[in-house]
Amino acid sequence: MKAPADYAHLEDQFQARIDAEEKIEPKDWMPDKYRKTLIRQISQHAHSEIVGMLPEGNWVTRAPSLRRKVALLAKVQDEAGHGLYLYGAAETLGAERDDLLDELHTGNAKYSSIFNYPTLSWADIGAIGWLVDGAAIMNQVPLCRCSYGPYARAMVRVCKEESFHQRQGYEIMLTLARGTEAQKKMAQDALNRWWWPSLMMFGPNDAESKHTAQSMAWKIKRFTNDELRQRFVDITAPQAEFIGLTIPDEHLKYNEETGHYDFGPINWDEFWQVVSGEGPCNRQRLKARRRAHEEGQWVRDAALAHAEKRRQRQAAKKDQKVA
Ligand code: BYC
Question: Where is region (Disordered) located (predicted)?
Answer without folding.
Answer: 304-323
